[in-house]
Amino acid sequence: MIVLMVEHPPERNTSEEERFQDDYYSYFESPENAPRYKPAVSFLDDAFEQQSFSLLDLGCGNGALCKYLPERCDYFGVDHSELAIEYCLKVYPNRNFVAKDLSVALPQLVAENKRFDAVVLCGLLFHTTDKETLEKKDDQELIQFCLDKLLTEKGYLVIIVPFAYGDHPSHNLYARAEWLQNSVEEMLETAKAKIVYGNISLLIGLDKKIRQQKTTPDWFVPDSNADYSNKYAGTYMATWTFLAIPSER
Ligand SMILES: C[S@@+](CC[C@H](N)C(=O)[O-])C[C@H]1O[C@@H](n2cnc3c(N)ncnc32)[C@H](O)[C@@H]1O
């Protein structure tokens, strides 16, 4: 029997908006971070071979996923950071973006009868917050909503979970990866969805890239100084990718 640890991510010291201002997220666009996006893109590219497909990117940040998507993908990115969306519109003028909180954007999409062949939650689970209060939103509810109300009949829910790991036994890659896998699998099972693809990739050299940044993210702690009571601290980066569809399909 698998016993799940129920734990909550650490409190952030800065809001998402402040972090964009601080250049916190520029590492998303670095080549070392490509394995965060490429497995999912490659799956979708094959699944919708030579056909156009629509994709909704929830919490799109600086739109780095766009770097890897084929032209034939009809992309729509949503983020509540106005700074992030301003940046996206400048860098990817041929793609569509909107600056809105998910609590506003998602019901609007449903009211407009919009559905998508892929709904992407990349770096969003365990990070979804209210912009004003920084209150954490319910990941289970978000997954259920996407599966029930936003996917087309042939659509995929894409869950990408980047995470930090370190050399300490409780921070090792296996322990972290297993905890996240169990946690995502449990949410998908509750939402009556099945995983059709899973991949774990190591982001080689991203630790160096992050350390070169002006500000080191508050979750990123070099091993020698790591607070090992904090399950989220770590030195290196990896990414889980899961693609899921409703179980009855
Ligand atoms: C860790 S970043 C990931 C960015 C991007 N998906 C990527 O991986 O390249 C999380 C993003 O989710 C956005 N976000 C968090 N909660 C949100 C909400 N309730 N509504 C809209 N965007 C949200 C943040 O502004 C931030 O850009």
Task: Kindly identify the CATH topology.
Answer: Rossmann fold
Number of strands: 7
User: Which ligands does the model contain, each kind named once?
Assistant: S-adenosylmethionine
SSE order: HHEEHEHEHEHEHE
CATH class: Alpha Beta
Low-confidence region ranges: 1-6
Instruction: Note the total helix count.
Output: 7
Strand order of the largest sheet: 3-2-1-4-5-7-6
CATH architecture: 3-Layer(aba) Sandwich
- Which superfamily, in CATH terms, is the homologous superfamily? Vaccinia Virus protein VP39
Gross geometry: globular
User: What is the gyration radius calculated from CA atoms?
Assistant: 17 Å
The pLDDT mean sits at 89
Q: How many structural domains?
A: 1
Q: What class would the helix/strand composition place it in?
A: alpha/beta
Protein name: Class I SAM-dependent methyltransferase
Pfam families: Methyltransf_25 (PF13649)
InterPro entries: Methyltransf_25, SAM-dependent_MTases_sf
Domain Methyltransferase: 56-132
Commentary on this structure:
The N terminus is likely disordered. A 7-stranded mixed β-sheet has the order 3-2-1-4-5-7-6, sandwiched between helices. It has one domain: Rossmann fold (3-Layer(aba) Sandwich). With 249 residues, it is an alpha/beta fold. It contains 7 helices and 7 strands. The site of S-adenosylmethionine has 20 residues, from loops. Keywords: Methyltransferase, Transferase. This is Class I SAM-dependent methyltransferase. It comes from Brasilonema bromeliae SPC951. InterPro entries: Methyltransf_25, SAM-dependent_MTases_sf. Pfam families: Methyltransf_25.
